[in-house]
Amino acid sequence: KIEEGLILSNSISVTVNVTKAEKAAWICIENGKDLPSADDILSTGNSIAIDEDVTVTADNLNANTEYIFAVAAISSNGASALEQKKITTDEEFDGIVLNSLIDAFYRSDNVAGAGNYSVILSSDGKLDENGCPANVGGILLQLDFYNVADEQPINATLPAGEYKIGEEYEAFTWAPLYSCYYYRNGTGVDDVDIVYLLDGTINVERSQHSYIITCEVTTSKEEKIRIRYSGNIDFVQTGTASFDPFEDDVEVELESCEGR
């Protein structure tokens, strides 16, 4: 079984589950080229674990191009099988591309008990001692989302969908008060612009813990911009509501403490 995952202009991700096989492997090849036989894929392709969902990614692909994602398997009796799926890569993204995840937090300790998902993304992952972009032209983007409280807060995932501006903890909204980006325009300590996001939509695509987050927003500079991040995000649970109460009495011994 091959299930299509996140598709970018230069990569294709799919989830594969192979059962009743001794060995399996995959390849991704541009449509129109000769597709190798199942035996050749098994001997030269990328191996896949058996009897479990496995997400694999083919990268360094061409934009807006159709590819064949092929999976070959062989059973214990020596019979081989080949399954394939045609997938077209996305067009080149016309906007700012962010490549690095700095932090991601989840909490629900607000008056509405809503799920609050915060992510901090960077153009290159390089920050100075103040947590601002270190390199001239660098961007640090902070986004603050709200949705229903996650049933698994320790392993929270941001629901896929379109998020609109909001300030009342409503599902599928983003909060302008905490959504902004930092842009380094020079080498001085203070050569950093803080630009707030004022309106627009943020689209979230998700496959397990892999995301594509696309912002089409208006900023406090009265500019309309497009920003995209693609990659893994694992949210860390924070906030006072992130801890379940003890059901039984627990004896706690303090070794040291501070107070004022």
Care to give the gist of this entry?
With 260 residues, the protein is mostly beta strands. It has one helix spanning 38-44, and strands spanning 2-7, 12-16, 23-30, 46-47, 54-58, 66-74, 80-88, 96-98, 100-107, 115-122, 139-147, 161-165, 173-174, 180-184, 192-207, 210-219, 224-232, 236-237. β9 and β10 (115-122) form a beta hairpin.
Over all CA atoms, what is the radius of gyration?
A: 23 Å
Shape: globular
Mean pLDDT: 92
Give a count of the beta strands, DSSP E runs of length 2 or more: 18
Q: What is the helix tally?
A: 1
Sequence stretches where pLDDT stays below 50 over 5 or more residues: none
Q: What does the main sheet amount to?
A: 5 strands, mixed, barrel
- The helical percent reads under 10%
Oligomer: single chain
Distance between the termini: 61 Å
Q: What spatial order of strands do you see in the largest sheet?
A: 11-13-12-15-14
Name the beta content range.
over 45%
- Class from secondary-structure proportions: mainly beta
How do the SSEs run, as a string of H and E?
A: EEEHEEEEEEEEEEEEEEE
